[in-house]
Design brief:
55% of the residues lie in helices and 9% in strands. The protein has 443 residues and is mainly alpha-helical. The protein has a three-stranded antiparallel beta sheet, with no helix packed on it. A three-stranded mixed beta sheet has the order 5-7-6. A hairpin with a 5-residue loop joins strand 2 and strand 3. The C terminus is likely disordered.
Amino acid sequence: MEVSSSSSPPPPPPSFILEEWNGSSSTKLSKTATITASPSLCIRRSTSYFHHVWGRILQAFVPEGFPNSVTPDYVPFQVWDSLQGLSTYIRTMLSTQALLSAIGVGEKSATVIGATFQWFLRDLTGMVGGILFTFYQGSNLDSNAKMWRLVADLMNDLGMLMDLTSPLFPSAFVFVVCLGSLSRSFTGVASGATRAALTQHFALQNNAADISAKEGSQETLATMSGMALGMFLARITMGHPLAIWFSFLSLTVFHMYANYKAVQCLALSSINPQRISILLQHFMNTGQVLFAEQVSKMEHILPIWASSWRSKCSNLLHMQIRLGVRVSAMSHPELTDLLRNAGSHYRKAKYVLVERNGIISVILHKDSTSEDVLQSFVHAYVMASLIGKTSSIHTESQSWIDAEYILFLQKLKLTGWKTERLLSPYISWRANWSSGSLDEKLD
């Protein structure tokens, strides 16, 4: 029997069918192709070539595993954020054109060294302003990401407005330009810091780096589109001051509206003083805990001074709480209350609460943990809600903590809230005390 030296692989079974699926997870798969071997090898694609190309392009702008790898508020936020970015880049062309004109670009009398020095002062002021802003507000950005996101863009608008008005004040040109640069320096710090906090919020699968990279692609696309539209707008409005100002102000109004809508879309699950206050008020009234989407609709997005008109219909008790008070800065009556309370009501706690004129001061123990900080704020809020209703606010607030606090935490976790820590400004002042009774010494 003669054996062939070259053998070919056996053909697949006549009924063999192979399917190709694509998707971000096992529950979000779609069939893209079917391969059959009967009567001959045949590949039948389930999606069109255009759909395939569009999917590949989309991968450059959205995170891997989208939409399952991000929170539901990612898409509306990015849409509004891209629109506000587009308006910013269009206005940048108008303000830059005015700034270069004021420096003297295109004029024979202008000197290179003079223009360079003016630009240097502008950048130097912005750098110094960024450092100072970080020093004074760095620890507050994480706890109020929504508010500072809006404030950052407002400061950017003010900076661009000063650039646009700089040609109108030639004698004070350097001063106006430096103020504009100082305003924009706050924008850079606040926007960058809040963006990091929001990226962590969007990441559901530890993919913060991927989300940040894809956001860079989205911003690049918005930048290129804004630059093209901005150059066109600057060209057609050149020499027409009224048209320039109308375009700039119209785009600024749209910019702030888009920013407000973007921030309004966010449903952050982290806990800051305002959100925990909203949750506590509802829990104390109904025994139930709100979801993040519900709380986001009740938050004060604007700074408190800009939304004070809403104070009559909103709970602002968290504004009466001073977290991490410096002991040596307290008055003598407050120190007396502190020592009494430490030896009586707060023997087992890692914090002491002192009430004076409706203000609750929270003194934290040097060994207190993030859990103690959260409990101290909840305790202070309960105490603030009892002011004017009872004379024994320490006793009754402690009774509420003993009976309800654990249940409150459990319901927070069940509804998706992150209870690991309270997002608050950095606490640098703490204290240490012994648990002995001090009543005899304070008569």
